Amino acid sequence: xxxxxxxxxxxxxxxxxxxxxxxxxxxxxxxxxxxxxxxxxxxxxxxxxxxxxxxxxxxxxxxxxxxxxxxxxxxxxxxxxxxxxxxxxxxxxxxxxxxxxxxxxxxxxxxxxxxxxxxxxxxxxxxxxxxxxxxxxxxxxxxxxxxxxxxxxxxxxxxxxxxxxxxxxxxxxxxxxxxxxxxxxxxxxxxxxxxxxxxxxxxxxxxxxxxxxxxxxxxxxxxxxxxxxxxxxxxxxxxxxxxxxxxxxxxxxxxxxxxxxxxxxxxxxxxxxxxxxxxxxxxxxxxxxxxxxxxxxxxxxxxxxxxxxxxxxxxxxxxxxxxxxxxxxxxxxxxxxxxxxxxxxxxxxxxxxxxxxxxxxxxxxxxxxxxxxxxxxxxxxxxxxxxxxxxxxxxxxxxxxxxxxxxxxx
Amino acid sequence: xxxxxxxxxxxxxxxxxxxxxxxxxxxxxxxxxxxxxxxxxxxxxxxxxxxxxxxxxxxxxxxxxxxxxxxxxxxxxxxxxxxxxxxxxxxxxxxxxxxxxxxxxxxxxxxxxxxxxxxxxxxxxxxxxxxxxxxxxxxxxxxxxxxxxxxxxxxxxxxxxxxxxxxxxxxxxxxxxxxxxxxxxxxxxxxxxxxxxxxxxxxxxxxxxxxxxxxxxxxxxxxxxxxxxxxxxxxxxxx
Lengths: 410, 239
Known about the structure:
heterodimer; A: 56% helix; B: 6-stranded mixed β-sheet; globular
């Protein structure tokens, strides 16, 4: 049998003669390939999304949170202590050479009303530099300015999601929303940033107002002059560690922290977060991929199992073929091609299911997926390999049959 | 005029191991068969007929001795070369037909051509014409289970002759057939023999053996009788 197409055709015909068995055998490989593709594309998708979001945040950005408070043994979360002040922020701006811009803010969750619609969201009071540090553009309107801060004007900029939820397609610009009985004029809508996967609340679900307005009119200032978070941007990506060091030094000094005392604040930089999330994503992808690969191997063992059954069942056929002139190699190739054809078809179906399934998952589950051609190629070649590896033993068994015994086999 | 010899067997023996026991299936058989002969091999079960057949058909090699088929020393060939000889020079017909159960008559007949690398179209045409010559027109796409015993054996004969072998080995070809179909099959063998194909037929029915012109009898792994058919039988028109 030198004619390769012929062999494949013969194999297909044989497999067609045992439709149910072939289908069930393929199922193993199908599930294997399908799950490898679905899992890996989910992992890669999540990774890509996290990376994009973190880059979008402004990658040379630093956060300074107030430390946690301890009341009667119960420790509260980061940012609950009142340790950071506006003066701290100004000092950072003044004295830290590696810091370009500084902003500060306060946040509170509150109900917002527009007409007969209302929405529970985060009210964030910040200074105008915030937008620059976050490298965040507006989809319409403008952000508030230093003048608004000085005069504590009641203007606000809506996150994309708030705009959608409150205005239902209406143009929010110039409209008035009410927060804690105070009417605010909408002067802008932020561009969508989405949620950081596994991170804080959806970034689009908040309203920005000038810091002074927040302090005086909304958050009922218990302790004026205190902030919950300071935002800073380093002069460049490379300057992040220096900036971090300078801020730390300055704040320890300003807060009179002695050498053996711990910081009463926490500095986080986005590059570290990005690197950490990236690494986590990678591990996740490998983990998912290897779990799925196990099912592919199990599928391969299924093929081997069925091929062995098939060989012993078709012993007589092997004998007949040998009697009319089939060489050992012809028999070997015949069975090997059968198992490879099985695993190939199984693999192709798995490919379709994996791609389709992960698309469906991204549609229904809102999970980001990334399907790379390389991965498809790898998964498919792996399924072919499974066919060869697990087909080899049964095929070899078949080709080693003694023609006389095989002919006599009942 | 001395005829050309197709088969020369010199002092062949075959020993099987069955666990601890050694079975001497053939104990020094020598035989010559000329081209175009029609030979019947007879003898009781276990006398070594089938073992002898397997060696003649290159399905098995002798433990010792020499076998020359068509001028080629077969006893020293490897399994690939033996496969090639089975493919080109020998056609088998078995008692139990040995057709591939899930393949059509046509596909069964094509099988030897597949292994000699003949292309699809030629293969089909040739198989079709041989099948028709066996009177099986209209049965080309039947699987063996839909054919009668006689028809199945004719498919098997078509398969045996498709590669134009010089030798046909038939092991009890009529054993599973009724007398009418048996006669039909034997008529075909006679026809093939007339066309110059050497036929060796294993049987234990003497009326079937009468179709042959020469008869050998096996007993205990040896040839004990070797007779030419009597003239009277030939005159009687059987041969």
